């Protein structure tokens, strides 16, 4: 797999709204998805997290109480609402309706060749393959 999909952000924190455990994301991920990242000041002493729970309005939050919802992002978060036209793979533009074996095999091959950018393009900051329907 490519380097971006080999890294793991295992640090977790419960979402302040749904109380479910959520994985850490890097500042680069948050900056990529915010509508106006230039109006936000990242803090190196703050940790940021992605909430993928479908019934929760929060998408990102910090350990200092900041939260971000869909209206504050430029990216529609497919795992929150996995509709046919929502993206499952942000690197190669694969929608849930297209997420078949051929598309998955293509994404696997591209990931192995290092052609993915999941750490920034996927709102979760993790490999898109994790979100493909089984």
TrEMBL record:
It comes from the Bacteria. Residues 14-73 form the CopZ zinc binding domain. InterPro entries: BFD-like_2Fe2S-bd_dom_sf, Znf_CopZ. This is CopZ zinc binding domain-containing protein.
């Amino acid at each position: 797999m490519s380097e971006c999909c080999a890294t793991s952000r295992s640090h977790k924190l419960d979402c302040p709204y749904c109380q479910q455990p959520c994985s850490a994301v890097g500042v680069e991920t948050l900056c990529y998805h915010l509508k106006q990242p230039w109006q936000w000041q990242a803090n190196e002493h703050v940790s940021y997290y992605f909430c993928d729970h479908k019934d929760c309005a929060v998408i990102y939050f910090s350990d200092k109480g900041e939260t971000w919802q869909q209206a504050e992002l430029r990216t529609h978060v497919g795992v929150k609402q996995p509709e046919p036209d929502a993206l499952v793979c942000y690197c190669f533009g694969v929608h849930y309706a297209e997420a078949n074996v051929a598309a998955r095999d293509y994404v696997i091959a591209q990931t192995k060749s290092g052609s993915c950018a999941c750490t920034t393009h996927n709102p979760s900051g993790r490999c898109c393959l994790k979100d493909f329907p089984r």
